[in-house]
C-alpha cells in the first residue's frame, strides 16, 4: 500500500515586515528553499514530479504561478511543474495534503510541498484592488457583515471569556519558548540561512522579542475595537518567509536511498462560521482524531497556529490537551506568520521537533480565512 513520507523539511528564517528579507523577491525566497531541499537530500531535482506551493496574495511579484517560477529560478529542470494553492493561511499545509493524496493515489512518486509569502513586498489584501470579493448573496446570508479576522479574534475572546492579561501572558510565553529554542539551537537544522546581496547572512527568526512583561504589553492600544483585547502584541506578526518539504513514498525513498523523517498519518479539513472565522481548528482536530483512530493523549506535540492568542487558547480550552505540548518552540506571535508559507513552516518545525525528541505523533492545525481549518497528524519514522 502506497504512503506519503517526508524525507526533508527546510525553511528560511522568518523575517519581520520591512526587515532583512524584505529585499528578497518571493520567487528567489522560494527558489532558495528548493535548492536547500535538493542539496540536503542529495536528490536530482529532475525526479520531482510537481511543486505544490501555497501563496495567499497572488498578485504583483507573487502572481503568474509562483510555483512554476520558483523551480525555474532555482535552476531545476524545465520538466519540473508547479501549481499554486490558496487556502488562505493554510495554503502550504493544504499543499502538504495535496502532495500526500497524489503520492497515495499514484499520481506522484516525488513531490515538493511548501509555500511563500513576502508580506513586505506584497502587502496583505493587495489582491483586492478596492473590489468586493464576497458578493451580495454572501453578505445577505450573514446579515451584511463582511468578515474581519481581528473582530473574529475579539469575538472568540469574548465567547470564551479570555481577559487581556491572559492573552498577553500567552503571547509572552510564545516569545519565551521561541527565544529558548533559538538559544538551544533547536531551529538550526531546519533553517537554510539566506545570504543577501550585500553578503549579510540571515540565519535567525527576526520576530522573537526578549524581556517583555505584562505591564509593558498593557500599554498597547487595542487594534480592532476601542474597548477590545486584541493588540499587536497578542497577534501574529506580519512576516516574510518560505518553507518546503520533500515528499515521496516509503518504497521510492528506499529506491532513492533517502531516509524518511515522518509519515503523513491523517489529513482532514473542517469548516465553521466564516464571521467569527477562526474557530475551525477545534472541529478539525476532533475530526482528525476520529479519522486517525488516535486518542488526544497519544499525540506528543501540537502546533496550533497563533494567528491571535485567543485561537490556540480556545482550542486548548475545548480539547483539553496538555498545555506543555502546545507550540513547544513558540508560534506565530513570536516567530511570525508569512501567510502562504506558514503551514509548511509549522510542518517543518513540527517534524524536526518529533525527530529531535523521539515523539511518535504530532498534530498541526491552523485557522484560515472563510472559517476553515486543515488538521494533519504526522507519525515519526
Automatic annotation (TrEMBL):
It holds the Pfam family Thiolase_C. The active site is at 89 (acyl-thioester intermediate), 337 (proton acceptor), 367 (proton acceptor). SUPFAM superfamilies: Thiolase-like. Its EC number is 2.3.1.16. Residues 5-249 form the Thiolase N-terminal domain. Keywords: Acyltransferase, Transferase. The keyword Zinc-finger does not apply. Transmembrane segments: none annotated. Belongs to the thiolase-like superfamily. Thiolase family. PANTHER family: ACETYL-COA C-ACYLTRANSFERASE, BLR7806 PROTEIN. This is Acetyl-CoA acetyltransferase. It comes from Pseudofrankia inefficax (strain DSM 45817 / CECT 9037 / DDB 130130 / EuI1c) (Frankia inefficax).
